[in-house]
Amino acid sequence: xxxxxxxxxxxxxxxxxxxxxxxxxxxxxxxxxxxxxxxxxxxxxxxxxxxxxxxxxxxxxxxxxxxxxxxxxxxxxxxxxxxxxxxxxxxxxxxxxxxxxxxxxxxxxxxxxxxxxxxxxxxxxxxxxxxxxxxxxxxxxxxxxxxxxxxxxxxxxxxxxxxxxxxxxx
Length: 170
Hints:
By secondary structure, this protein is mainly β. The protein has 1 helix and 10 strands; from the N terminus they run H-E-E-E-E-E-E-E-E-E-E. The strands form 3 sheets. It has a 4-stranded antiparallel beta sheet with strand order 1-3-6-5, with helices on one face. Strands 2-10-7 form a 3-stranded mixed beta sheet, with no helix packed on it. A 3-stranded antiparallel beta sheet has the order 4-8-9, with no helix packed on it.
């Protein structure tokens, strides 16, 4: 019972502290120029907003190959609380050319926020080159930082052939 009251109190304090800060709604893309047949990542981040209603844009010129993926974080540093929610999508273009991702919408309790439209350039890919979308961890490090290096392959130990038993006839 005490845990439930404490949990409710912490949620109320969290909402109170977050509401005191100005909400921020941003979008990032990685990379903004790609080769045809590859995908890219789009991230929509809402900061300092309690219970935002995220409405993604219509990705008319793109195929969604991954997402929506959602992550959230809360940080308290020197009494200042920062809370954020990130929605990410992996998109693949339908054709070559220059495209714009339309703005996304975040409806908050007291106002509505929009992102700016982003330009995406899709180039021809006659060689069929495959690019991997750039990924970063929540700490801002490159994901290759955590990847284990490849170890040299070990040779399998040589097995000794079994000795044949000699049989004698009596």
